[in-house]
Amino acid sequence: MDEILEARTLQPETTRPVLTANGVWFSYPDNPSVLKDIALEVMPGQRVGLIGPNGAGKTTLFLVICGMLKPSAGEISLLGRPVAFGKFNPQVALVFQNPDDQLFCPSVRDDVAFGLQNMGLPREEVEARVEEALSTVGVSRLADRPVHHLSEGEKRIVSIASVLAMRPELVMYDEPSANLDIRSRRRLIHLLQSSAETILVASHDLELVLEVCERVILIDEGRIVADGEPREIMGDEQLMEAHGQEKPHSLIPHQIPHH
């Protein structure tokens, strides 16, 4: 009996999901059932891609997860606790597709500090976290620059810094590579690959999803139609075409022409 009790004591505790969605539905007044019975779990440290055609419900799902929209049915939980809708929740953060929707302070430093100040942190900790976040994304040199003087790629990276400074458990990226040049896109990919946070990435950039994510969820017409290993799902040409997607170019076999 003592050996059995000891074995039970040594068993590792089951890891708790960062995100749980159970039977989530959402409708806009002029667009019913944008989300239909969404059910998923995301475990700590996972990098999950969310793909699907325009209008599939990807951004709406993000807004529901972070509490900006309240589902018409179902439940969303973060670390086992129900999401408080309409309230600031630093455990989950959303990086908007358009950084101009996120950056509005006079300087980069002010923007990165904004969320921390709303968390009620003391000034010394705010300053330390701002410096840490800017250093993490490699843009410390921009701290005192006016936001409207930044390039599109710089704005995107500063948006990410403003989110990381709050040390959220879950970070959601909505089309993070949109309008980025090759160098900025590659820098973004490296940043996402090295992320310590659990991340969800909604993107039409399927090659980015292949490089960054270990799991992919295909959503269409508000429903999850596939969930699994990225190369398996995105390599299924019939499945992808049935839901408005193309098989990524890197997954198409290339033949060297004979001369």
Main sheet makeup: 6 strands, mixed
Strand content: 15-25%
Number of strands: 10
Q: What's the structural domain tally?
A: 2
Q: What's the helix count? A: 9
Kindly state the mean pLDDT as a whole number? 89
CATH superfamily of the largest domain: P-loop containing nucleotide triphosphate hydrolases
Strand and helix order: HEEEHEEEHHHEHEHEEHH
Biggest sheet, spatial arrangement of strands: 6-7-8-3-9-10
Task: Please name the CATH topology of the largest domain.
Answer: Rossmann fold
**Which segments are poorly predicted (pLDDT under 50) over 5 or more consecutive residues?**
1-13
What does this 3D model show about the protein?
There is one protein chain. Helices cover 33% and strands 24% of the residues. The chain has 259 residues and is α/β, with parallel strands linked by helices. The strands form two sheets. Strands 6-7-8-3-9-10 form a six-stranded mixed sheet, with helices on both faces. A hairpin with a 2-residue loop joins strand 4 (73-78) and strand 5 (81-82).
